[in-house]
């Protein structure tokens, strides 16, 4: 297998990012919606989107967003990480996390659904430590 390239996303990646996203259960957006959403994130100083590209095709992405806090230290949080199932188990997710975290200077956090045990193990293997459990309340 050729080596994947890890880089910042660009607006031309919108449709392929949208397609890869469906592999984790995200709803497929229209081409317009996908472009508008990505453009908004690319223009945000608080958001960074990185992709894994292989042979000109996007096979994974990671989204980091900057979380500012009034009474504690600011940090980055992983807002999403998706790898096309055809390429899972080949180090793509690991290298996306490694690349993305090397691009920022603050602590990086991630939240996982408590039922996603594979994700917990994945992040532990990337050096993340579980620090607390939470419940999410939506109004």
UniProtKB/TrEMBL annotation:
Claim: Acyltransferase is one of the keywords in the record: yes
Any one Pfam family match given in the protein's UniProt record, by short name: Acetyltransf_1
Record's keyword annotation contains Acyltransferase: yes
Residue spans crossing the bilayer: none
GO molecular function terms noted in the UniProt entry: acyltransferase activity, transferring groups other than amino-acyl groups
Protein name as it appears in the record: N-acetyltransferase
InterPro entries hit by this protein: Acyl_CoA_acyltransferase, Bact_Acetyltransf, GNAT_dom
Keywords tagged on the record: Acyltransferase, Transferase
Domain N-acetyltransferase: 4-139
